[in-house]
Amino acid sequence: MKRIPITFCVSMAVLLLVGPGCSLQRLKDSNKRLKDSNDRLVTENNRLENEVVGLEQQLVGLNLGGQSPDVDSAELGASRDSRDLLLEDEGISIDETSQGTRVRVPDQVFFQLGQAKLSQNGRRVLDRVARLVNEHPNQLVRVDGHTDDTPIRKVRKLYPTNWELSSARACRVVRYLVDHGAVDVNRIFPAGFSYYRPLARGRSPSARKKNRRVEIMILNQRAGAAL
């Protein structure tokens, strides 16, 4: 049997030792290339997301009165009077009375017939009401619920009479202004008047529609002191 040359054995040993090292290095190089590629993809994705946000902000600017897309939407909102924003909603009125500032909102803006659950549109309106209320931080606020004279039938188990319905609606508005509008709970309270303070006399559909309403009263110092 022939003897294997020593040089051959040494060469094989070197290959066995170096081979795995070369494979490991190739894996490291491949991993680095993948990491670099992933970093580039993340950077590109962030850039595209920023472009989308910019386009959305421009669209908001265009929807808010045709202003230039360069106008910041927060600055636009701050520059507009809270009363003007409220008056954009059909049927809402703001008046100065002997008791203070009154915001009168038709009930259909807030609620469906016979219900006291706030609609999405009602929440949007109350967000604006909250801004107006918070412009007068030292004045009490009374939320008045008013119904028409139609007897309660379908929801009698929840609201036996219009007293309960008008009070529930006023409470719901108060809760929203406190929970979502940052109105101080110590200066706001509800009141339910049922149908005993109508704006229109008679039982016609138009009269009843006018009488169903919620009024947010920002009371002046004289009215507040009388409580």
Structure description:
This protein is an alpha+beta fold. It has two domains: 32-80, no CATH class; 81-225, 60s Ribosomal Protein L30, Chain: A. Helices cover 53% and strands 13% of the residues. It has eight helices and five strands; from the N terminus they run H-H-H-E-E-H-H-E-H-E-H-E-H. It has a five-stranded mixed β-sheet. It starts with 5 loop residues before the first helix and ends with a helix.
Q: What is this entry, summarized?
A:
This protein is α+β, with helices and mostly antiparallel strands. The chain has helices at residues 6-63, 73-79, 82-87, 107-110, 120-134, 162-179, 205-211, 221-225, and strands at 93-96, 100-106, 141-146, 188-192, 213-219. The chain has a five-stranded mixed beta sheet.
Order of helices and strands: HHHEEHHEHEHEH
Work out the helicity level: 40-55%
- CATH architecture group name of the largest domain: 2-Layer Sandwich
CATH topology of the largest domain: 60s Ribosomal Protein L30, Chain: A
Strand order of the largest sheet: 1-2-5-3-4
Query: What is the highest CATH level, the class of the largest domain?
Result: Alpha Beta
Helical segment count: 8
